[in-house]
Amino acid sequence: MQHNIQHTFKRFWLVLLIPLILLLTSCDLSLDQFLNGPPAQNQPSDQSSGQDQDQQVQDSPVPPTATDTPIPDTPTYTPSATASLTPTYTLTPTPYAYISQNTNCRYGPGSVYDLLHTYLAGQDALLLGKNAAEDFYYTEDGNGAAPDCWLWAKYATPVGDISLLPVFTPPPTPTPYLDFSFSYHGSDCGAGSCWLWFTVDNTGIMPLESVKVYAKNTVTSATANYTSNLFQTGIMGSDIASIPLSSSGYTHSGQLPNPGSDKIAVTITVCSKNDLNGVCLTRNMTMKP
């Protein structure tokens, strides 16, 4: 029984194997190819495979890395030395004037202007300007105590460069007027009579050219008259033709009996012209010699 089964099974496989062999033969395939696959004749050898691989690398080069192609250094620009000018500041000191003698400083450049200040010998005055003739300076008191005014250059020695001082236009000349003051100065007595001396100060803007002195003893009514076109520099001093603006001179009375302690009434008249002409002004005073 078992023998029949085996025989039948073999016959079954043979029936199935014969058609399969015929099929493979028609397809040009062997049983070994069917069982193990096609032969490896179409596979490249190891050497040819390596050559083909090398050929592929050459055809597609790898981009160079940073180490393959050095990047040129960025040029460095060193700035050239540039000359720099350092500003130099030169301080120009303000010029000033050294006062050698007591000098009046006025509203304008001249004695016709009002007196504003008197600089004393040894003082300094800052110079702000000058007139066109450069014989007067417009000044400023460094201490701020005196007003700005015009100073006569005769007794004001400039210190510093005055060429850069601006030229100031003086104020208009005031209307001329005559004014003066006087005071008792002393007496010159002898042989029972006296001459009374007086100081005359020109406080106006016109020169004093002539004078008349009238003196009267208020107790004895004794009188004396004196008229002159001259003044003096002091008691028994030199004669001067006039008293300029902002200046002083001396005059005296006529010969008067020695008044002792009596009061004397004095009248003085001064004029801008000789012989009591021009503009005249009279002032009075009562005093004891």
Describe what this molecule looks like in 3D.
It is a single chain. The protein is α+β, with helices and mostly antiparallel strands and 289 residues long. Among the domains are: 96-159, SH3 type barrels; 180-287, Sandwich (Immunoglobulin-like). It contains three helices and 17 strands. It has helices at residues 2-26, 31-36, 46-59; strands at 96-99, 103-106, 115-119, 124-130, 136-140, 149-152, 156-159, 180-190, 193-202, 210-217, 223-228, 231-232, 239-240, 248-252, 256-257, 264-273, 277-287. The strands form four sheets. A seven-stranded antiparallel beta sheet has the order 3-2-6-5-4-1-7, with no helix packed on it. A hairpin with a 5-residue loop joins strand 10 and strand 11 (223-228). It is rod-shaped.
Silhouette:
rod-shaped
The CATH class of the domain at 180-287: Mainly Beta
Distance between the termini: 201 Å
Q: What's the architecture of the domain at 180-287 in CATH terms?
A: Sandwich
Biggest sheet: strands side by side, in what order?
A: 3-2-6-5-4-1-7
CATH topology name of the domain at 180-287: Immunoglobulin-like
Q: Strand share of the residues?
A: 25-35%
* Structural Rg: 67 Å
Q: Could you give a short account of the major beta sheet?
A: 7 strands, antiparallel
Percent helix range: 10-25%
